[in-house]
Design brief:
Layout (H helix, E strand, L loop, with lengths): L2 E5 L2 H8 L5 E5 L9 E7 L7 E10 L2 E10 L7 E5 L2 E3 L13 H4 L1 E3 L29 E11 L7 H10 L6 H10 L2 H4 L6 H16 L6 H4 L6 E10 L8
Parallel strand pairs: 1-6
Antiparallel strand pairs: 2-10, 3-4, 4-5, 6-9, 7-8, 9-10
Length: 245
């Protein structure tokens, strides 16, 4: 078992806490500055687990051709993710010093949970999740499954749309979820049927996905490009004993 950090924005942290988010999607990353087309991603039969194989169409040694590239999944089943979220040390007015910061002494505030205000009403200096130290971690997720697929793969059938988006922590509405779970709504099962509610749910998720991608990268990684992603299913677990001591 390996402990790995993973960034989550505040709405998704809240969804994890209320139990509605049980999986996340992350882009399959290739070397930067390479204009390669990712054709397929599949497990490496010789190195099962975190090691996968990517089928690439691109330029290699000045010749454009199809080739295989070894890549790593961000985690494997059994790993524990510690969530990095927007945070702040407990004494945010502590003056800068050359002395190393004792995080345990300061304690922590979390944007998803705590309301913190300066006495004069000025904004407090929340710190980005990327800078959160291990000592501050309060949410831990046990990885249950990791797979690679196209972003749209789970969205071809209407029933899959709702169940997949609900697992991503998006509110699909109680009525819509119960309709599928209890009755197997024909609009959800038959991909030829039209269901305006489900179309709206899919479109909402598409907009959310695109909001996480830098504008310049949208042609390559936006919803319309249907990029390859890691689908990571998880279950919340307890803080490991002796964590970051």
């Amino acid at each position: 078992m390996t402990y790995r950090p993973m960034l989550f924005n505040t709405p998704m942290v809240c969804a994890i806490e209320d139990g509605t988010k049980t999986q996340t999607r992350r882009l399959v990353q290739l070397p930067k500055n390479k204009d390669w087309e990712l054709l397929d991603v599949h497990p490496n039969p010789d190195l099962p687990g975190r090691f996968w194989q990517a089928e690439i169409n691109g330029t290699l040694t000045d010749v454009k051709k199809r080739f295989t590239l070894g890549i790593k999944a961000p985690c494997v089943a059994g790993d524990v993710l510690w969530v990095r979220e927007t945070w702040m040390p407990g004494r945010f007015d502590k003056p800068k010093s050359a002395v190393p910061v004792d995080w345990k002494e300061l304690g922590f505030f979390y944007f998803a949970r705590d309301e913190v205000k300066n006495s004069d009403g000025t904004p407090v200096p929340w710190r980005p999740s990327i800078h959160m130290p291990k000592e501050a971690a309060r949410i831990f997720l046990r990885v249950d499954e990791v797979r690679a697929e196209r972003l749209h793969k789970s969205f071809f059938r209407y029933g899959d749309i709702v169940l997949t988006i609900a697992a991503e922590g998006i509110d699909v509405g109680v009525q819509c979820r119960e309709c599928i779970d209890t009755y197997g709504c024909p609009c959800c099962i038959d991909s030829e049927s039209e269901c305006g509610v489900l179309d709206d749910i899919r479109d909402d998720f598409a907009r959310l996905w695109d909001s996480t991608i830098k504008p310049a990268a949208l042609p390559r990684f936006g919803w319309a490009s249907n990029p390859w992603v890691w689908v990571i299913k998880f279950t919340r677990t307890e803080r490991p004993e002796g964590w970051a001591r």
